Amino acid sequence: MSVLNWVIKGQLQRRFWQADEDAAAPVWHTLDRGEGVNRFMETRRTLTPTTTNHVASAYDYRGVSLVEFHSKANALDGDSMQVLSDALDNVTAQGLQGLVVHNDAQHFSCGVNLETVRGFFRADDYDGLDTFLNNFQQTVHKMAVADFPVVAAPVGMSIGGGFEVVLHAQHVIAHANSVTGLVETGVGLIPGGGGCKEMLYRWADKLNLSHDNVADAAWKVFMALGYGTTATSPLQAKDMAMLRDSDQWLMNRDRMLSAAMEHVAQATPVHHARPDIAMPGREVYHTMLEWLDQALQKGIILPHDVRVNTGLAQIITGGEIDAGTVWSEQDLYDAERRVFLELAQTEGTQARINSMLDLGQTLRN
User: CA 159 to CA 225: how far, in whole Å?
Assistant: First the structure.
């Protein structure tokens, strides 16, 4: 049996060649899809991108801006985020209903392209790296505070920077096989695209904490991000504060895009701008440092793990500041970039990144 794709009135129809019992010769039959079945890898063939480059594309599809990552493993770089940023702007400029981030690859995104990070530190261009991180942060922030619905519909792995994109969507419709998490500590870095910030707020909400007492939330983030913990299903992700209770998940991948489009059509925007927060301060920070020292002595972690997670503790507690010092969401973004840049300049982190890129191995040092 052979299959042929036909574009009829802008819609992709798949047809197959097969003989009927009462036909003198084989004929073409239209392959009927169930209601709600819509695979983007097929639909894309009927569309022309409004913005595109070698790593990402954006489309106007049925009154919605649809962004697709399509690099190797859908790794993200400045060009990926530029397409996403332009697509967000295009929603308002063109009067579209909202934005969906989705693709039909095996994985939604395996994070920021480490070759991009290595390019910056090999060129000793830390100002350029800071600019990249800031643009990433401001792009995902635009998703969170947009005046229109923004939906992420991930499948497969959404880890590292890929998960930071998901974290800042106003609503998530995840496939049942989704794997999510912030795993940057494994390569000697911390989440620098709003991940530390967002997980601190997520755990505060999950634990029903007021924003002037988030020490318990800081510990949850410290342990989860320090170990690079991942959730292997949307249900587990909700338990780990990676997804909101209002987020959805689907068993059938064929219906992901339709569900995302339907949500955009029916939903009202849900702004996720974060309020100021009272940081735990130096007491909690020093307790975390003591935990790291004890873990090192027990052989649970290694010396560079201490360096990396000291930086993580600085972000989520505020470091050497008084307890109760108020930080804004932007203060947390700034702290992420500061620690990321410091770590990127260390020999230990550069060795971990080189090992991952050149050998495909996680280096413990």
Answer: 12
pLDDT of residue 27: 65
Q: pLDDT tens-digit profile of 28-70?
A: 666 667 777 778 888 888 899 999 999 999 999 999 999 999 9
Strands (E), the chain: 2-8, 11-18, 27-30, 51-52, 56-61, 64-69, 98-102, 150-153, 157-159, 171-175, 179-181, 230-231, 248-250, 277-278, 326-327
Backbone region of residue 79 per phi and psi (left: phi > 0; alpha: psi in -120 to 50; beta: other values)? alpha
Q: What is the Cα–Cα distance from 42 to 103, expressed in whole angstroms?
A: 11
**Domains of the chain, earliest start first:** 1-32 (no CATH), 40-359 (3.90.226.10)
Q: What sign does the CA torsion over 349, 78, 140, 357 have? A: negative
Q: Residue 14 above 60 pLDDT?
A: no
Rounded CA separation 336/306 (Å): 17
Q: Give the residues across from 153 on adjacent strands.
A: 102
CA pair distance 275, 238, nearest whole angstrom: 22
CA distances from 296 to 71, 236, 300, 306, 307 (A): 38, 29, 6, 7, 11
* Percent of the chain scoring above 70 in pLDDT: 91
Q: Any idea what DSSP says for residue 77? A: -
- Do 178 and 154 contact (CB within 8 A), yes or no? yes
Q: Is 230 helix (H, G, I), strand (E, B) or coil?
A: strand
Give residue-wise pLDDT tens across range 292-328.
999 999 999 999 999 999 999 999 999 999 999 999 9
Phi, psi (5° rounding) for residue 110?
Answer: -95, 20
C-alpha 336/C-alpha 191 separation (Å) is 7
Please state, as a whole number, how many other Cβ atoms lie within 10 Å of the Cβ of residue 165: 28
3-state helix, strand, coil in the chain (%, to 5): 45, 20, 35
